[in-house]
Design goal:
It is a single chain. With 519 residues, the chain is mainly α. The protein contains 27 helices and four strands. A four-stranded antiparallel sheet has the order 2-3-1-4, with helices on both faces. It is globular, with a radius of gyration of 27 Å. The termini are far apart.
Length: 519
């Protein structure tokens, strides 16, 4: 198995050409070494001060012999004079010798340039251990390791249409929508920070997820952000801006909606408002007033994040089209949308990406046909309940079902995103779970069914919480089991088996055993 090496050199100001000359001087003697298969010198397209060397050796021993040569020693002696920081070197086995091919240079568009370009992007977002996952993958599948560099990073993320921070924001949004890819989510959250993003960027993406994906995805993702902040010694974030006055949430949401959405609010709400006026009110108050009115991310980027989440989920064509058009009204270009949706092919697959492009095609046509409208005057059409009232109801509902302190839930988010803890109490419990249309046991069992059917890793902890809440309000072990069994026809055996395992673990903690079987 051959050894591939990627070495990165960052030139000091004014030393770009000198560094390039020294690196190019190594090409001829290195290629004459018997263990050398390929040796390419490339200059970064994004940062001309960065040079990288792409090498392939027949064995690790051949590479070690190369590093001991006088010409390599001369280059390394010049590194402090020519380079900023230490040289970054990564090595991993990728292909067997039978697949190795010699290459004199990496021509533009060649497979070598594609791979080297991918490694450069991977280095920029991956940090010190940027090639660690690829090396580990290479032990299982050399071809998959190569494709993991070449396609996502060499073909897609290296494109110039979006800066790397925006690309990473879109990646994080897509991976949160998956719900079960926590290692990759953490990698790209770190990648966003390495690409110039902030912890606040991450928090704002997660706020958007509360409305688009629900609180389980939010709670799961915040746990990863909390660990990242701890690992990087990032302290408590600045206090968030004051929320709207107690009678202003609906009107704030209506203003946020009217500012960029391409249809009237009444048109948007019509399909469900007649059935559930409450849902229509929450859509404006919470979805737009509490979430999409937040201003840390640019307006076009907020709607782009929504669109990426919807495209990843699939089967959300109408609302996806609205948010793509909203992003354009807020300033996104057609090219930026194309680049963001192209990344869906990497993180959600080609079927999801192709479907999203079908929606985008229609959205582009509608955007071209639209005529500029006069600024809308938004009348005050609804008075929102006070946050204090919603909090009081939420704390009472939470205490009655989860037998825990609502204040503890709020405080548990103080270190990263205190508003999310408040939203769980105010919205989930103060707006929804306090309602009397279902008794508490039925409401908790429906929550168990919903979370079990979701089947994602992000929903596992909430499923445990609501299994216990159902038992707290009077459900029996058998009723929980029957609720989960009812899901097997709709979600399949693997999903329900996983949910039943979780239920069994919670039953065991409470000392609940199966009752005698019915005859």
């Amino acid at each position: 198995m051959t050894l591939h090496i990627a070495a990165f050199f960052k030139a000091k100001p004014g030393q770009r050409e000198s560094l390039g000359e020294q690196l190019l001087a190594l090409v001829s003697p290195t290629k004459s070494e018997p263990g050398s298969i390929r040796y390419d010198i490339l200059q970064s397209n994004d940062d001309p001060d960065t040079w990288f060397v792409r090498e392939e050796w027949r064995s690790r021993n051949d590479f070690d012999l190369h590093m001991a040569t006088p010409y390599v020693a001369r280059l390394l002696a010049l590194v402090p004079q020519l380079c900023l920081g230490e040289v970054q070197i990564a090595g991993y086995a990728l292909r067997s010798p039978s697949h190795a091919t010699a290459c004199d240079s990496a021509e533009p568009g060649s497979a070598q340039q594609r791979h080297a370009q991918g490694l450069e992007i991977l280095r920029r977002i991956g940090g010190p251990d940027f090639d660690g996952p690829v090396r580990r993958l290479g032990r299982v599948s050399e071809d998959m390791a190569r494709l993991t560099v070449d396609f996502p990073y060499g073909d897609v993320l290296s494109r110039p249409g979006l800066d790397l921070r925006i690309r990473q924001i879109c990646n994080v949004a897509s991976l949160i929508a998956h719900g079960s890819v926590q290692p990759q989510l953490r990698f790209h959250m770190e990648g966003l920070l390495n690409a110039g993003g902030s912890v606040q960027d991450l928090v704002e993406i997660i706020f958007i997820a509360t409305a688009v994906l629900g609180f389980p995805a939010t709670i799961d993702s915040i746990g990863i952000v909390r660990q990242l902040a701890k690992d990087r010694s990032i302290g408590t974030l600045p206090a968030p801006a004051q929320r709207a006055a107690h009678d202003g949430r609906y009107n704030q949401g209506l203003r946020a909606f009217t500012r960029v959405m391409p249809v009237e609010a009444s048109t948007y709400l019509a399909p469900f408002e007649a059935v559930s006026p409450e849902l229509a009110k929450w859509a404006i108050e919470f979805g737009f007033g509490d979430i999409l009115a937040r201003e840390h991310l640019e307006a076009w980027l907020r709607h782009m994040v929504v669109a990426v989440m919807l495209a990843t989920l699939g089967n959300r064509e109408d609302v996806l089209s609205l948010h793509l058009r909203a992003a354009m009204i807020a300033g996104a270009t057609r090219g930026q949308i194309i680049e963001a949706l192209m990344q869906i092919s990497v993180y959600a697959g080609f079927p999801a990406a192709l479907n999203a492009f079908g929606v985008a095609s229609t959205a582009f046509e509608l955007a071209e046909q639209a005529t500029p409208a006069a600024p809308a005057v938004v009348a005050k059409t609804s008075v929102s309940e006070s946050d204090a009232l919603r909090r009081e109801r939420g704390l009472a509902a939470l205490a009655a079902t989860s037998a825990g302190s609502g204040e503890a839930v709020v405080r548990s988010f103080d270190d990263v995103a205190p508003e999310i803890g408040q939203m769980i109490v105010d919205h989930s419990y103060g707006d929804v779970f306090h309602r009397e249309g279902l008794d508490r046991k039925t409401r908790e069992l429906t929550a168990c069914a919903a979370l079990a059917g979701c089947g994602s890793k992000a929903c596992e902890t909430p499923l445990r919480v609501h299994i216990n809440a159902a038992l707290n309000v009077g459900a029996t072990r058998e009723e929980v089991v029957e609720t989960l069994l009812n899901m097997v026809c709709y979600f399949g055996f693997p999903v329900v088996q996983g949910a039943m395992r979780i239920a069994g673990e919670e039953f065991k903690k409470r000392g609940l055993t199966a009752s005698a079987s019915r005859s």
